[in-house]
Amino acid sequence: MARIGFFVGALIGPLLFAQTTGNVEGRIVSSATGAPIGGVEATLRDLSPSRQTSYQTTTDLSGMFRIPDVVEATYTVEVGKSGWRQDIAKYQRPFDVSTGKGETVDVVLRSLAWPE
User: Fold this and answer.
1) Nearest residue to 89 via CA among 73, 76, 102
2) What is the CA 71 to chain-centroid distance, rounded?
3) What are 2-27's pLDDT values in tens digits?
4) Which residue has the higher pLDDT, 37 or 86?
5) What's the per-residue H, E or C state across the chain?
6) Do residues 65 and 25 make contact, with C-beta atoms less than 8 angstroms apart?
7) Predicted model pTM
8) What is the pLDDT of residues 66-93, one digit of tens each?
9) 46/53 Cα distance (integer angstroms)
10) Do 104 and 23 contact (CB within 8 A), yes or no?
11) Residue 53 pLDDT more than 50?
C-alpha cells in the first residue's frame, strides 16, 4: 500500500507545483524605429516585501524575452541596456502572474543618442 501512495504522490506532486506558476514574455523595441533591441536585460521584481523574489533574462536578437515558471505574485518589470532608457512610470505598473497563464509585457525603449 505504501508503494501505491508513493507512486501517486510522485505523479501528482509535479502537477501541483506546475499549477502555481505562470510565464512572462515580451518584446523590447525602439521607440524611434520599432526595431527589436537584442541584449536588453529584463528583470521581474516581486512586490511582496516578505519574498523579494526576482527573475532575470536577456532579450534575443529579435528583442524577445521569456521567463518560465514564475511564481504566482504581483510583479513589475524593469529593462535596461546601455544607451537606452525606458519610461519608468509606464512599465513599472504592477501586474499579476496567475497560475498556468502567460503575461505579455512589451516595452518601448528610447535611444539616448536620438532625442525624440
Assistant:
1) 76
2) 11
3) 455 444 444 445 544 445 888 999 99
4) 37
5) CHHHHHHHHHHHHHHHHHCCEEEEEEEEEECCCCCECCCCEEEEEECCCCCCCEEEEECCCCCEEEEEEEECEEEEEEEECCCEEECHHHHCCCEEECCCCEEECCEEEEECCCCC
6) yes
7) 0.72
8) 999 988 888 888 888 888 877 654 556 6
9) 5
10) no
11) yes
| Domains in the chain: boundaries | 2-111
C-alpha cell at 50: 516578505
Q: Fill in the amino acid letter for 51.
A: R
CB 86 within 8 A of CB 107: yes
CATH number of 2-111: 2.60.40.10
Contact 70, 97 (CB under 8 A): yes
